[in-house]
Amino acid sequence: MGGYLPCVGSGRWPTGPGDDRLHGGPCPSFGEWRERGERAQAIGRSRGGRTTKIHALSDPRGRPLAFLLTGGQVADCTAADRLLDRMPATDLLHGDKGYDSAAVRRKIEEAGAAPNIPPRANKRWKNCFSPYLYRNRNVIERMFGRLKDFRRIATRYDRSATNFMAAVHIVATVAYWL
């Protein structure tokens, strides 16, 4: 315990000039070591209450490849940047209107794929979009429907983001890979 907490067993806590900690000790308090709050647990506030979004990448057959959790109020295009780092080599990538941003399109094109994302209604210049190819996006919607057949995923019983993400991974493994 002394190696883990250097301030335990060291006698009186030294307080010197320039020490502006709340209690003047060399270590943070126990509450500061763990991540707290709704933001750290991927819980967002919206009009419907507390919500969590699951962002996913899937292959053409609808099998999930990567997941990312965010709070419900977080914009999809901000989460796409982290999710696209795990994108496998592909020719075409579908996304819904929430992922329509210049940065997301640029990142997809840099990876060697063509983005097929419907433009938002308020855009002046509409990007190239094929409604015919977009029909295949129902594959990922069916994947989410299949994941949410499991009540634990649909209602998020877990308080911590790591436990919820573990449950999502277990359900995806059981539903698609076993």
Automatic annotation (TrEMBL):
It comes from the Bacteria. InterPro entries: Transposase_11 (IPR002559). It holds the Pfam family DDE_Tnp_1. Residues 43-170 form the Transposase IS4-like domain. One of its GO terms (biological process) is DNA transposition. Residues 1-26 are annotated as: Disordered. GO terms for molecular function: DNA binding; transposase activity. This is Transposase of ISAzba5, IS5 family IS427 group,ORFB. The lineage of its organism: Bacteria, Pseudomonadati, Pseudomonadota, Alphaproteobacteria, Rhodospirillales.
